[in-house]
Automatic annotation (TrEMBL):
Pfam families: HTH_1 (PF00126), LysR_substrate (PF03466)
Gene Ontology molecular functions: DNA binding; DNA-binding transcription factor activity
Keyword tRNA-binding: no
Superkingdom field: Bacteria
Lineage: Bacteria, Pseudomonadati, Pseudomonadota, Alphaproteobacteria, Rhodobacterales
UniProt keyword Methyltransferase, yes or no: no
Organism the protein comes from: Roseovarius mucosus DSM 17069
Keyword annotations from UniProtKB, A to Z: DNA-binding, Transcription, Transcription regulation
Family recorded in the similarity comment: Belongs to the LysR transcriptional regulatory family.
Domain annotation HTH lysR-type: ranges: 1-59
Record's protein name: Transcriptional regulator, LysR family
InterPro entries: ArgP, LTTR, LysR_HTH_N, LysR_subst-bd, WH-like_DNA-bd_sf, WH_DNA-bd_sf
TM spans (from-to): none
Length: 296
């Protein structure tokens, strides 16, 4: 299927600005022209691409086409660099699937070293983020999957260390007789979302038990730590976010002898290997500073 580049650019502009008006300003067109282009693209594809909400959001098919448009832009940028060798690369948008805890710790410094790009980050659990890459929604993903997806390359980055934490008051209320399988079965637990299995895995590592405790779902790394500090529940948080709270005594470790390391890998579309090489190098540099060595 051949899709007009100007129609794909219109779809990307709508989703990036969140409105037809914003897309019109970016592309120097009227809102009517933007609407006509989108309707023509939807007719050509045979599916709705944009939810007409405030802000506008993509349907699943729209997400796939927007990612396709990003790939085209990235390849064109690479081609322009190869042909000219002189002109600076324009800002290109990279849509990536990343986990919230990396975004809250080591990842921003890595991305900041690439001023020539714009980033569209999709937050998902590291255990399932590669599914978005498999569906073609993103150009690359931070994931726990070590084996490459079809048509992708993979490189190990390092391990993100987590600690099980809770407030002193929560510890006294729920673990007065120790952190055991019995007490963990009833103590309220914090969970990022339904895909987050870190707490369950830590329970098995620490006690050997398989449990389903009552839980709060809080999809925010910083909010997770705040909720634990306020005594809502216990949960797993990146060690890098805990130093101040542990020093002040506002948070405690459930088991000081039982950290949990989660390996992270970078997977990306092999077709874009050369175009994404600067990003891959930046992620490796950032990981050396912010993650633990996987071999240790």
């Amino acid at each position: 299927m051949s899709l007009p580049p100007d129609h794909l650019a219109t779809l990307s502009a709508i989703l990036q600005t969140g409105s037809f008006e914003g897309a019109a300003q970016v592309l120097g067109l009227t809102q009517s022209a933007i609407s006509q282009r989108l309707k023509a693209l939807e007719a050509r594809v045979g599916a709705q691409l944009v939810h007409r909400t405030t802000p506008c959001t993509a349907t699943p098919v729209g997400q796939r086409l927007a990612a396709h448009a990003d790939q085209i832009a990235l390849l064109e940028t690479r081609l322009r660099e190869d042909l000219t060798g002189l002109a600076p690369a324009p800002q290109t948008r990279l849509r990536l699937a990343v986990n919230a805890d990396s975004l809250a710790t080591w990842l921003p410094a890595a991305l900041a070293s690439l001023p020539g790009h714009l980033f569209d980050l999709v937050i998902d659990d590291q255990d399932v983020s590669h599914d978005r890459l498999l569906r073609g929604e993103v150009l690359g993903a931070l994931t726990t999957r070590a084996s490459p997806l079809p048509g992708c390359d993979v490189t190990p980055l390092g391990a993100l260390r987590y600690q099980a934490i809770a407030s002193p008051e929560f510890m006294a209320r729920n673990f007065a007789d120790g952190v055991t399988s019995d007490s963990l079965a009833t103590a309220p637990m914090l969970q990022f979302n339904m895909n987050d299995q870190l707490q369950h895995r830590w329970i098995t590592q620490a006690t050997g038990a398989t449990l389903s405790p009552p839980c709060h779902r809080l999809p925010s790394s910083e909010g997770f730590v705040t909720a634990a500090r306020l005594g809502m529940g216990w949960g797993m948080a990146p060690e890098a976010l805990l130093q101040d709270d542990l020093a002040r005594g506002t948070l405690c470790l459930l088991r000081a002898d039982c950290p949990f390391d989660t390996p992270l890998y970078w997977q990306w579309t092999r077709l874009l290997d050369k175009a994404l090489a600067p990003l891959t190098r930046a992620l490796r540099r950032g990981a050396r500073l912010g993650l633990r060595d996987l071999t240790k």
